[in-house]
Amino acid sequence: MRLQSPSVWSLLAGLSAVQAQYLVNELSFGFGPRIAPEGTTHVPNFSIQGTRTPEILANKVILTPVSPGNVRGAVWGERTLDYREWVADIDFRVNSPDRGGGNLNVWLAKDGPSAVGSASIYTVGRFEGLALVIDQSGDHGGMIRGFLNDGHTDYKSQQVDGLSFGHCNYAYRNLGRPSQLKITQTADKFSVSVDSYPCFDSDAITLPTGYRFGVTAASADNPDSVEVFKLVVMTQALDAQQAGSGHGSTHNNQQQQQQRQPPVPPMRFSRSGQSEHQPHGGSSEDDESYEADLPDEEAGHITSSKAQFADLHNRLQSVNHHLSTIFRSVAQQGQIDETRHEENQRALGELKGLLSKLDRIGDLEQRIAGLERDLRAVRTDVANTMRNAEHSIKSHVSDHHSTLAETVRGAAPGHGRLIFVILGSQVLLAVAFVVYKRRRAASPKKYL
Fold first, then answer.
1. Is the pLDDT score of 88 beyond 70?
2. Which pLDDT tens digit goes with each residue over 341-360?
3. Please, which residues have CB within 8 angstroms of residue 84's CB and are 6 or more apart in sequence?
4. How far is the C-alpha of 199 from the C-alpha of 193, rounded, in Å?
5. Domains of the chain, start order
6. Is 117 left (phi over 0), alpha (psi -120 to 50) or beta?
7. Alpha helices in 207-302 (DSSP H)
8. By the 8 A CB rule, do 72 and 50 touch?
9. Residue 88, Cβ neighbours under 10 Å: how many?
10. Over the stretch 149-165, which tens digit does the pLDDT of each residue have?
11. Whole-angstrom distance, CA of residue 277 vs CA of residue 280
12. Which residues lie in coiled coils (predicted)?
């Protein structure tokens, strides 16, 4: 049997060279157009808990609201992580007043919903696993710290600041965009990065399987609003589980299972919380080939028509799987574009609403002008009233002063009478003095 279409072979060769990381759907949310199915308030494969039930929107989960304060919220995976090597992406955003308080905790813990619940690193007791804490620690505007516990240390009774094994400064509040926290576990290294910048890493840490992912948040009296847009877990090979039915499977069983189920499309994740497909032909050091189970073979090894038919059947089936993946990717991208179009329409509507408010500026200017005219009229009336009152007071005081002067002038004694009294008294004294001298001179003198 001969294959007449060389374009199919070229497509197969191009697809077989693609490297990808595989999305683990049951451990992830936020990679599609909606976090919760339309008409529901449940995140598939995750449980929600807290002192106040977190609000689930189309593209985010609000763990702690803007009001009230002292609220705890958590979202926990219902499935365990059964891969040795994996990558976890968490997109979050924290908005707060100038002096807001609270913390965000990312967990990979054993029995997380029961052992940790909605606690933070400061209120949790004994837990087994990893905790990444994002809070206002120190005077750096924010810090990301890593903590490990084997289940023996009671963090509630410890000084937490001295127990971290790694940290980096990160000002996370009021950025106006989601922040992307990336946790990577490989065979020889554990690393944490934020917004594509390295935070800390260690080659002495290897986390075991069987733990659950979770995100918790706690707010203070002056609360932080903590929003989680996505929690996405990826692995390089879906058949590399360390627990479950796939652990003891043979290579043939894995190949048959892969032929029955199409592979998960390679995906990369933007900060908006929506999934995007990588263009075919891209390369990455952490990617894995689609055709790892269908290696190329020389034509001489196929010695029978049955083997040739089986080889062609397997490869055509693989091509069909890839084409189906491409079609699903295009359909999903269309949904994403439609969602973004709706978001743009809503933003445009809000902008039109704001512009309509600007039309009221003319009315406001007219009102201000009328108020200015009224103030001028009031000022003029007050000035006239004060002027009339001043004139009235002046005329009244002037008339009263004239009347008082005439009264005083009429009641005062004349100077002629005073002069007459003075001169008369002097004349009387002189006459009395002359009479006294004469009488004394006429009297007889007496001698002893």
1. yes
2. 888 888 888 888 888 777 77
3. 185, 187, 206, 209, 240, 242
4. 5
5. 20-247 (2.60.120.200)
6. left
7. 251-260
8. yes
9. 22
10. 999 999 998 888 889 99
11. 9
12. 354-388
